[in-house]
Write a structure and sequence with these properties.
disordered C terminus, alpha+beta, nine-stranded mixed β-sheet, transposition, Transposase_11, disordered N terminus, Transpos_IS4, 40% helix
Length: 416
C-alpha cells in the first residue's frame, strides 16, 4: 500500500475539490457540529470512491471500509455502520452536492478547448431527461402513476467536437413533465443553439424564445397543425424532403404562434422522414439536419452513467438520499473528465474509470504508468485477413520495377 497519500491517485483526483475548497463552496456554519468521524467532506470522499468502485449498497460500503486498510487510511477512521451511513445520506442537503457539481462544471469549461460544431454557431446545448424507475411502495414520494414511481433528471449538456459535458441539472419526481422545466434549462443567449426532443414542445415557450432571439432546434409531432407560408425547393440529391416557412398552431383554439418557424423534413439513416422545426433561418437545411443528430450525444451520456456508475440502484429510500446519490454520480463523472484533461489523455473516458478503479489508493505514478502503458503484443488478425490484398501491393511493386529485392519494399506487411 502506498502510505504517501499526498501523491496517491485518489488525492490527485480530488485535488480540485480539496477540503478547504469544499468548505468554502458549501459555506454552511456548524455543518459538522458534534460529528466525530464522518464529516461532510469525508462523506463526499466515501461516496465518490463508492461510485468509482460501483458499490451497490450501504451495507457493502460499510463492509468495504471495515475490511479495507487503504480506505481506512484515506478517511482516517476504520468503521462506520450502515445505519449511520443511511442517516447521513438522508439528512444531508442535496443542494450542497449540487453546488459542488456546478463548481466542477465551471472548472471543466474554463480548462477545455471547445470548438463549435459549425463555425457559425457558438455553443450547442442539448436538453433531455432520463427517468430512474422505482417501486411505488418503497418510494411513495416519487409516485407519478398508479403503479409506477420514479425520479427524473432533467439535464443540459454542452456538445462540442471535443466533449459532451453536463452543464445544468434539475432533479424532480417523474410526475413533472419535460416541458415544465424547459425555462430553467434554456439560457436567454443568442450565441447558443438549444436542441431538444418532442417532449419539450410548447408553442408559447417557442414564441418567448423567438421574441428574445434565442435559437432552438427540435422535432415536431406528426399531428401538429401547420400553416405553410413559403417553401424552398431542395437541391437534387439532397436528403432534405421539405424546407418551409410555417406558422404552428391554429387561431381558432388560440394555439397559433405569432412568430414564423422553419419546418424541415429530412430522411434519417434508416430512410424514415423526420420533421424538424427551428427558428434558425441563417443555417442551411443540411446543417440543421446534421445538428439535430447531435441530440443522441445526451442519450449516450445517460447510457454511460447508468452502465459505469451507481446511478440506477439507490442506497436509500428518501428523496434526499436519492438526490444525493445522483449528484455525487455527476460529480464523479466531472472529476474523471477533469483528470483526463489534465493528463491530455486521448483515449475513452472508460480507460480513466477502469484504471482509477484498480489503482485508486496506489501512488499516482503507478496510475500514470498503467494508463499510458504501450501494448506489448499486437494482433495480426487483420493482417492475415487482408493478406491477399497486401500480396497484390507487393506483386504490383515488382511488376512495375519499383523494387527488385524484398528489402526495397515500401510496404512490408510483416513489419509495417
Amino acid at each position: 500500500m502506498d502510505k504517501n497519500t499526498i501523491k496517491s491517485t485518489i488525492n490527485e483526483l480530488l485535488k480540485v475539490i480539496d477540503e478547504h475548497t469544499f468548505s468554502n463552496l458549501i459555506n454552511v456554519i456548524d455543518l459538522d457540529k458534534y460529528v466525530k468521524k464522518l464529516t461532510a467532506y469525508k462523506f463526499l470522499q466515501l461516496l465518490i470512491i463508492s461510485q468509482l468502485k460501483e458499490t451497490k449498497s450501504l451495507t457493502q460500503m460499510s463492509k468495504k471500509l471495515r475490511d479495507g486498510e487503504e480506505l481506512q487510511v484515506q478517511l482516517a477512521f476504520d468503521a462506520i455502520s450502515t445505519s449511520q451511513l443511511s442517516r447521513k445520506l438522508g439528512d444531508f442537503p442535496p443542494t450542497l452536492f449540487e453546488k459542488i457539481f456546478h463548481y466542477l462544471v465551471l472548472n471543466i469549461q474554463a480548462k477545455m478547448k471547445q470548438s463549435p460544431i459549425i463555425r457559425e454557431i457558438g455553443r450547442l446545448h442539448v436538453i433531455d431527461s432520463t427517468t430512474m424507475s422505482m417501486s411505488v411502495s418503497q418510494y411513495p414520494w416519487a409516485t407519478f402513476r398508479k403503479t409506477k414511481a420514479g425520479i427524473r433528471l432533467h439535464l443540459r449538456v454542452v456538445v462540442t467536437k471535443e466533449l459532451t459535458l453536463p452543464d445544468k441539472g434539475i432533479l424532480l419526481p417523474a410526475k413533472h413533465a419535460d416541458r415544465t422545466q424547459m425555462g430553467d434549462l434554456i439560457d436567454m443567449d443568442s450565441d447558443t443553439i438549444h436542441l431538444f426532443d418532442r417532449g419539450y414542445i410548447d408553442y408559447k415557450q417557442f414564441d418567448h424564445l423567438c421574441l428574445h432571439d434565442v435559437r432552438f432546434i427540435t422535432r415536431l409531432k406528426k399531428n401538429a397543425q401547420v400553416e405553410v407560408l413559403s417553401e424552398q425547393i431542395p437541391h437534387a440529391g439532397s436528403p432534405i424532403v421539405k424546407d418551409q416557412e410555417v406558422f404552428l398552431g391554429h387561431s381558432q383554439n388560440g394555439t397559433r404562434m405569432t412568430h414564423p418557424l422553419r419546418l424541415i423534413e429530412i430522411h434519417d439513416s434508416q430512410g424514415n422522414v423526420v420533421m424538424i422545426v427551428t427558428n434558425c433561418f441563417d443555417l442551411s437545411a443540411e446543417e440543421i439536419g446534421d445538428l439535430y443528430r447531435y441530440r443522441w450525444k445526451i442519450e449516450t451520456f445517460f447510457k454511460w452513467m447508468k452502465q459505469h456508475l451507481t446511478f440506477k440502484t439507490f442506497y436509500g429510500k428518501s428523496e434526499n438520499a436519492v438526490c444525493n446519490q445522483i449528484w455525487v454520480a455527476l460529480i464523479t463523472y466531472c472529476l474523471q473528465v477533469l483528470l483526463q484533461e489534465q493528463l491530455q489523455h486521448n483515449g475513452p473516458l472508460l480507460e480513466i474509470k477502469k484504471t482509477l478503479q484498480n489503482l485508486l489508493f496506489k501512488g499516482f505514478d503507478a496510475f500514470l504508468r498503467s494508463l499510458f502503458r504501450q501494448p506489448t503484443r499486437f494482433s495480426t488478425g487483420r493482417r492475415k485477413q487482408n493478406w491477399e490484398q497486401e500480396f497484390r501491393v507487393i506483386e504490383h511493386q515488382f511488376a512495375e520495377g519499383e523494387v527488385s529485392h524484398l528489402d526495397d519494399l515500401t510496404y512490408d506487411p510483416l513489419f509495417n
